[in-house]
Structure formats: structure tokens, C-alpha cells
């Protein structure tokens, strides 16, 4: 029971300080779960993160559910998801209650601009971590840049890019496995 509550507390802490949604969570999850506590391997974390992005719903909930389940089963999945969800729900509720009163203050506007910059940095860091793990050779780099170009030119739904990547991976793997 004590370990399960510790899991909840760790995800609650991450939920308090990880702004920016799914990708912005990756550095915090890696630091807290893989580096500080050795609860999960960094490579497994990135794999779970990639899997969570392919599913419908919030990436943050999907990935924390996977991680919590891996660490403590169903209870872990539920408590990890609750831990990551509670802080933003409380913060958003408070902001909504007071935003009309303070939204026009220059200090508040500057704070939100600064927060946006911090989120971009966190997302860039997550992309770097995932890129290091995923772009392992010329073929994976070529597939990445092809998918990026297709998305940029045609604005195709990312779900189709993910499905295309899965299909291409299976086809390429089929050629290398006897």
C-alpha cells in the first residue's frame, strides 16, 4: 500500500510542474521515473510514450496509465492517471475563476507568454529524446523526413502517418526476418 501511495505522490508532483501536455511530460517522466527512482527503463518509457500517442485520448493519461500499470498493476494505472490529472484540474479551475478579473493585467499576459516559451522548450527536449531513440539509421531518418514532408505539404491526419509508419515498419522488417 505504501508503494502505491508513493507512486501517486510522484505522479501528483509531476502533474504540478509539467506544463504543456503530452510531449512536455516526457522529460519530467524520464527524470522522475527512470533516473531518480529506476522504476522504469528510459527506452521502455519512450516506447510506452510512442504507443500512447497512437491511441485516442490524452497522451498524458494514456502514458501515465501504461506506466502506472507496468509499475503497480491496475491500481498503479488508476493512481498514476489521477495523480497526473488532479493538479491541472485544480489549476485550471482556479485560473477560470479568476481569469476574467486578471486577464488584462500586463503582468499576467507576460507570465502566459513566458509559460508558452517554456512549453516549447520542453516539447523540443522531448522531440530530441524521442528522435535520438527513434532515428537509428538512414532508413528511419528517411521515413521521418518523408512523413514530415507529407504532413507539411498535404496536412494529412497524423493517424494516417502513424498507420503508414506501422505498415512500412512491418514491410521493412519482413524483408530482414527469415
Walk me through the structure:
Helix 1 packs across helix 4, helix 2 runs antiparallel to helix 3 and helix 3 packs across helix 4. It is built from seven helices and no strands. With 178 residues, the chain is mainly alpha-helical.
Helix content bin: over 70%
Indicate the overall shape: globular
Would you list the SSEs in sequence order as H and E? HHHHHHH
Count of DSSP H/I helices = 7
List how many beta strands DSSP finds.
Answer: 0
Structural class: mainly alpha
Quote the distance from N terminus to C terminus. 47 Å
Report the sheet-strand fraction.
under 5%
Oligomer: single chain
**Mean pLDDT across all residues, rounded?**
84
Low-confidence runs of at least 5 consecutive residues: none
Over all CA atoms, what is the radius of gyration? 19 Å
Biggest beta-sheet profile: none
Question: Which labels suit this protein?
Answer:
mainly alpha, globular, 178 residues
What's the short version?
Helix content is 86%, strand content 0%. The protein is an all-alpha fold and 178 residues long. It starts with a helix and ends with a helix.
Write the layout of secondary structure elements.
Blueprint (H helix, E strand, L loop, with lengths): L1 H16 L4 H15 L5 H13 L4 H44 L3 H29 L3 H17 L3 H19 L2
Helix pairs in contact: 1-4, 2-3, 2-5, 3-4
Amino acid at each position: 500500500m505504501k508503494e502505491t501511495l508513493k507512486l501517486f505522490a510522484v505522479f501528483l508532483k509531476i502533474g504540478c510542474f509539467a506544463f504543456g501536455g503530452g510531449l512536455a511530460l516526457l522529460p519530467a517522466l524520464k527524470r522522475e521515473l527512470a533516473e531518480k527512482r529506476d522504476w522504469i527503463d528510459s527506452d521502455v518509457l519512450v516506447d510506452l510514450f510512442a504507443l500512447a500517442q497512437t491511441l485516442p485520448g490524452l497522451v498524458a493519461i494514456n502514458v501515465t496509465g501504461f506506466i502506472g500499470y507496468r509499475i503497480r498493476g491496475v491500481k498503479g494505472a488508476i493512481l498514476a492517471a489521477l495523480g497526473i490529472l488532479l493538479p491541472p484540474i485544480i489549476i485550471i479551475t482556479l485560473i477560470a475563476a479568476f481569469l476574467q478579473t486578471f486577464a488584462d493585467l500586463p503582468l499576467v499576459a507576460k507570465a502566459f507568454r513566458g509559460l508558452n516559451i517554456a512549453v516549447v522548450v520542453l516539447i523540443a527536449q522531448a522531440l530530441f529524446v524521442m528522435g535520438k531513440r527513434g532515428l537509428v539509421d538512414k532508413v528511419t531518418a528517411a521515413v521521418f523526413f518523408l512523413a514530415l514532408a507529407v504532413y507539411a505539404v498535404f496536412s494529412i491526419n497524423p493517424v494516417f502517418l502513424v498507420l503508414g509508419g506501422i505498415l512500412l515498419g512491418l514491410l521493412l522488417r519482413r524483408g530482414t526476418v527469415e
